[in-house]
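re: ur question from yesterday

yeah so i grabbed the chain u mentioned. its 288 aa long if i counted rite. heres the sequnce exactly as i have it in my notes:
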Amino acid sequence: MMKQDLLKKIEVLLPSMSKNRRAIGNFILEHYDKAAYITAAKLGSQVNVSESTVVRFAIELGFAGYPELQQSLQELIRTKLTSLQRIEITNKRIGDSDVLEKVLNSDITKIRSTLDTIDRDDFNRAVSAIIDAKMIYIVGMRSAASLAAFLSFYFRLIFANVTLVQTTSGSELFEQILRLNKEDVLIAITFPRYSKNVVRSVEYAKHIGAHIIALTDSKLSPIAESADSLLLAKSDMASFVDSLVAPLSIINALIVAISKIKQEEFIDIFGKLENIWEEYEVYEKTHE
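ran it thru and got these structure tokens back, copy pasting raw so excuse formatting
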């Protein structure tokens, strides 16, 4: 669907709709968090209309059917819901089922879905841009900071030109990416609820002309449109916790892909590292 607020579109179309479809629209406007996770039949029963009327409502909005409307609502609420609202919805979805099984199966589904939909050309373009970059800047805030730190840790073992952007304010952000230029790469990582600082860093990199690799969840993400390489990973709420298994898998794939291309350098680098780790007893020795 077009990049516009779905709720605003419903508000605009509401006056021209039939009575039954207005009832559906009003329910979604007031309870979009609930509508995103109930069937067309259940939604219809909430406002005393038929399931087919709900489906026709979705088509009137420009969707192929109700599942597409529901998916759009799910994407929408991930950016709008507060942590407390997310906890409430997750508790209802899980109910009395096995939490461990439910969460792990959900994560497995996200990885499979990511594998099915990720653009291989974008992935390969990202790998090439990273290898050719004069400098590599990595930015990820809040929960995505863990992904940025993980990527930075391994990239620093491979490259000598890696900067992990760590900041708590807008001014600090621009101070750290001040020397960014068109020969560099910015790897930006953000998932709902999207970080303003990450969005700002992408806007700056776009203005400079640097290659932007965006690791995010949707083409509707505020950093997607500016990306030269767009890596989409499924990310859904698990209570107030962001599920980051799929983007972490993409990061692992980036590291492995680069290690294969730079295999000779890898052997030399890690040969030296193993000697250093052994000499300075970096790792605890285990007893067999």
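noticed a couple things. The chain has 13 helices and seven strands. also The chain has a mean pLDDT of 87.
anyway ttyl
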